[in-house]
UniProtKB/TrEMBL annotation:
Residues 12-66 form the HTH cro/C1-type domain. PROSITE patterns: HTH_CROC1 (PS50943). GO terms for molecular function: DNA binding. This is Helix-turn-helix protein. Pfam families: HTH_31. InterPro entries: Cro/C1-type_HTH, Lambda_DNA-bd_dom_sf. SUPFAM superfamilies: lambda repressor-like DNA-binding domains. It comes from Brachybacterium faecium (strain ATCC 43885 / DSM 4810 / JCM 11609 / LMG 19847 / NBRC 14762 / NCIMB 9860 / 6-10).
Amino acid sequence: MILFRQELGDVLRDARRSQGRTLRQVSSDARVSLGYLSEIERGQKEASSELLVSVTDALGLPLSFVLREVSDRIAIAEKVTIPDTVPEGLADGTTPLVGAR
């Protein structure tokens, strides 16, 4: 089963490690407890939107970048292709989302 919190934690940990920063440094900059940030990175806790913004700011990353990376990873796990543009008809509401009721 694909879990958003696990993919998000992986993306945050990968970003932190690629910057050569410790969990302690990022938790301090984000003003989040070390233990809680560790649980988020391990996919054990859900991050609130406020906390997520604090962490992405501490990492110097736009929230949209992090969410896009999570989305891309989930799409790979689901074996789907995400189009680069919004399909015609979807933006104006004439074409329903797949599975929408």
